Amino acid sequence: MTPRVGDEIPPFTRKTGFANWNRYAAVNDEFIPIHMDDEAGRAAGQPGAFGMGNLQLSYLHTVLRDWIGPEGTILRVGCEFRALNTRDMVVTARGLVTGVSREDGRTVVDLDVWTEAEDGTRLAPGTARVALA
Prior knowledge:
Elements: E1 12-15, H1 18-28, H2 33-36, H3 38-43, H4 53-68, E2 73-79, E3 90-103, E4 106-116, E5 126-132
Antiparallel strand pairs: 1-3, 2-5, 3-4, 4-5
């Protein structure tokens, strides 16, 4: 694979809700009422329960890992949580190549990454750097 600036990486899509949030909470011991109970979400000023911010980060990790494969290395990934992931929302993680270089004999790729809702609202924009095998 020889990425070029402007290339989009294949997206990762997930319809979210209590089943996803519950599995994520179980792994991370994050059974917080605003993520599990609509009344708690409403009490926090939202329309109901909403997903964990770090779940968005895990979607970004997944889209990168799927793209680089088991031999590649995620060097850095980070994002800002700007909008909520609500129940039954279809969330897509995406990436766009912004730079390609050779470092220590490896191809290193910089990307803009983000998760977005079906209407294109960016939920968690960020950046990443990966090394390809």
